[in-house]
Amino acid sequence: MNALLIFKALHVVGFVSWFAGMFYLARIFVYFVDAGDKPEPEKSILQKEFNAMQWRVYKIICNPAMIITWIAGVAMLVINPGYLQMGWMHIKLTLLLLLSGYHGYCKGVIRKLEAGKTVMSSFRFRLFNEVPTLFLAAISFVAVLGKAGSLNYIYLLVGLAAFAGLMYMGANAYRKRREREAQS
């Protein structure tokens, strides 16, 4: 039991760090694109610094945290293989695989931005920045309520869709406010 608790603690440290890194990384994407609107030499200086920051966050925070999360999670499954028989665990693992895909996609975004390719607008990166929030909410509800046996998947999907809609409306309202302020 002691090993299980140690791996559980490592799993929590890993996923908290992983999500922190993913939130910060996507925010740096926004700053990188926004810097493209600045005059030279400010644009080049800022984008060079943001690119360095992107790689540091990705390599020093996101990658190790993802590895710790996966290793500790798999170790818990090895210690307690009964969880693999539960439907909620299959959903959680699927979400984690999708999150790992998002993680890998971010590496591609860094490479494209570094090469000077426009990947998304600043607004779309702001929305992209919310994707980890949806993963965090979904994984948390699946893990906690699924383990308790009280997860209603329809309510989860409806709740996540409503949450995503609210985040989109908030981002859109913020964009419109910024546009109004820029015009005045």
DSSP helical segment count: 6
Main sheet makeup: none
Span between termini: 63 Å
General shape: flat
Number of domains: 1
- The number of strands is 0
Average pLDDT score: 94
The poorly predicted ranges are none
Specify Rg, calculated over alpha carbons: 19 Å
Helix content: over 70%
* Strand content bin: under 5%
What structural class do the secondary elements suggest? mainly alpha
Q: What series of H and E elements makes up the topology?
A: HHHHHH
Summarize the structure.
The chain has 184 residues and is mainly alpha-helical.
Your description of this structure?
This protein has 184 residues and is an all-alpha fold. The chain has one domain. The chain is built from 6 helices and no strands. α2 (42-79) packs antiparallel against α3 and α5 runs antiparallel to α6. The termini are far apart. The model has no long low-confidence stretch (mean pLDDT 94).
List the helices and strands and how they pair.
Blueprint: H1 2-35, H2 42-79, H3 87-114, H4 122-128, H5 131-148, H6 153-183
List keywords for this structure.
6 helices, 184 residues, mainly alpha, flat
